[in-house]
Amino acid sequence: MNKLVITFAAIGLLIARGALAQGGPLPANATPNIVPLKVQVVISRYQGEKKLSSLPYTLSVNANDRSEMSRMRMGVKVPVMTIAAPIVDGKAMPTGGPIQYQDVGTNIDCVATALEEGRFLLLISLEDSSIYPDDAPATGSRGNPSFRSFRASNSMVLKNGETGQFTTATDKVTGETVKVDVTLTVLK
Question: What predicted TM-score, i.e. pTM, was given to this entire model?
Fold first, then answer.
């Protein structure tokens, strides 16, 4: 809960900084110049130089809209047994025990602020989780899936049509490298 509060406070601070960079805070009765943007986030996975997957996500974001953040949620709930299943011939046997559900998918939050000279400050928070593939090294209890997760929050400044690398990280278990690229397009 505290993490969420800090994130929103940081967003408010950066929006205020953007307003100050443009000549100071807006009067209470003034309407900010809202600029519609398309923000594309591409999450790519590599094993060495070989690209394994590339998934694009597109968000519509209104720069300078202090009232809301653009959010995208996409995923599924995966059933996981909470009691270890007995192993017979190397395979987990269902026991009919209690089941919990684990969220798997992608969550992206984005706020944009217009800066001077056609630049935009993007504040992006990204969460991506998935089940390890069957051929990944053993990481969990036998019979239950193992989950990987990737989280990143950062800011970047882009102009219309620019692409920037948001972050890169390597999975300690599989050795896969995750690269996240962001492209900004101003909608007219």
Answer: 0.72
